[in-house]
Amino acid sequence: MADFYAPCPKGLEGPLADELQALGVIDARARDAGVAFRGTLRTAMLVNLESRIASRVLMRVGDATYRSEDDVYAAALAVRWEEWFGPELTLKVETSAIKCPLKSIDFLTLRVKDAICDRLRERRGARPSIDTREPDVQVHLHLDRLQMTLYLDTTGAGLFRRGDARDTGLAPLKKNLAAGMLRIAGWQPGVPLYDPMCGSGTILSEAAEISLQRAPGLGRPFAFHNLAGFLASDWNPMYDAAEERALPVQPLPIWGSDIAGSAVEMTRENLTALGLQDSVHLKQVNVLETSAPAPEGMLITNPPYGVRVGEDEEMAAFYPEFGHLLKRRFAGWRAFILSGDLRLAKLIRLAASRRTPLFNGQIDCRLFEYRLVAGSNRTDDEAGDSRQDRLRSGSRETGNQEQND
Ligand SMILES: C[S@@+](CC[C@H](N)C(=O)[O-])C[C@H]1O[C@@H](n2cnc3c(N)ncnc32)[C@H](O)[C@@H]1O
Questions:
Q1: DSSP annotation of 156
Q2: Which of 86, 137, 180, 352 is the most buried (most CB within 10 A)?
């Protein structure tokens, strides 16, 4: 048994602990920006294969209190690295620190690397070479004010890198943040889902993959393959079972749209790369001209943040109109809007039933939830408008047409 730590976007610790418990991890404990758990390397493989919310899975191999660079070197030298990997593999050391009193984090990284190389040279007659881009083995050093912890990374490239979403300038969400939003919303496969500002389609592709019961870790390499404790007899049946579980691609009640043709195109490309182009309905349209694609469902989206000059005012004008649209055309739906622009809360003119703090990278966001019930103080015009919309969306319930057509 070993201690593990799975980092995740800040705000998703609770959902990640729930996800791990559902996977059968027995003592998942939410910590700051991650979840701690105990288990075997087999447990770590399962979490790597199945978790949609974790960013990676780290195995704790040593810890100590420290006061100097020499203490850090000595603690790293004491770890039995040779039991996990040999000098033939390439190595990288990564360091994170909170309130570390020592001067140079880079120097501490170097000392840990030296300690690992010295130990392997002594025990195995050679030292590993360093590869900072694509190492076979990655060691994480974490320091707080008094304590240092050493971890072996079991993951490799971050778990949120699944699929293909390229950097498009559309500010794509990380896949694990999108998965966390879906979990916080309580969305389940089969519930109609609509992202009307879909950008590169991250929320849509996550929802489609969840619907088809695809394990997020299929078809990618993991760092644990390189570790000496790796047993193919544990991994192969687990992997085969996950592969067999996946459902055939089929049309799903998932809709996406965006005002930008380039965004819709990027979403289509991303879905196609995952073989999901026939599962999700896409359209280019201004959200303010759209309507509900089903009588009930969940609208989950993240509007642009006003980062460029002029966008601030544009967004301030947009929120009241967006709120008005939700009230008029999405009665019966629940809307979940992720935003780092906290003016939204006031300007949208709807009462949020929940606000969940979440970090999108460094941006402190809220996931606002709005329960859209038919408004009691609407004008007759709006009521008529809403009745017509519902009739229109009702006619679209059957078949597999695009919305708004
Ligand atoms: C922050 S991005 C969404 C990123 C997306 N969640 C992803 O993971 O790729 C916001 C998107 O809203 C779109 N957008 C902005 N104003 C819009 C409007 N009025 N109607 C529809 N889409 C709009 C932008 O084109 C952009 O693609």
A1: S
A2: 180
Q: What are phi and psi of 150, to 5 degrees?
A: -110, 135
Tell me the CA–centroid distance for residue 245 and ligand 1, in Å: 33
Fold agreement (2-159, 162-212+247-395): no
SS3 call for 65: strand
Mean pLDDT of 166-188: 87
- Compute the distance from residue 366 Cα to the ligand 1 centre, in Å: 17
Cα-trace Rg, the chain: 24
Task: Determine which residue's CA is closest to atom 25 belonging to ligand 1.
Answer: 260
Is any ligand 1 atom within 6 A of the Cβ of residue 286?
yes
Q: Which residues pair with 369 in a beta bridge?
A: 336, 354
Residue nearest to atom 26 of ligand 1 (CA): 199
Per-residue pLDDT reduced to its tens digit, 249-266: 999 999 999 999 999 999
CB of 287 within 6 A of ligand 1: the answer is yes
Burial of 203 (0-12, 13-18, 19+ CB in 10 A): buried
Confidence of residue 382 (pLDDT cuts 50, 70, 90): very low
d(CA 319, CA 383): 21
Do the bridges between strand 363-371 and strand 354-360 make them parallel or antiparallel, or are there none, so unpaired? antiparallel
Q: Return the domain boundaries, the chain.
A: 2-159, 162-212+247-395
Please say whether the beta carbons of 41 and 154 come within 8 A: yes
Please indicate whether residue 260, judged by its CB atom, sits closer than 6 Å to ligand 1.
Answer: yes
Decide the pairing of beta strands 34-39 and 29-31: antiparallel
Class of domain 162-212+247-395: alpha beta
Q: Classify domain 2-159 at the CATH class level.
A: alpha beta
Residue ID of nearest Cα to ligand 1 atom 3:
199
CA–CA separation, 139 and 154 (whole Å): 9
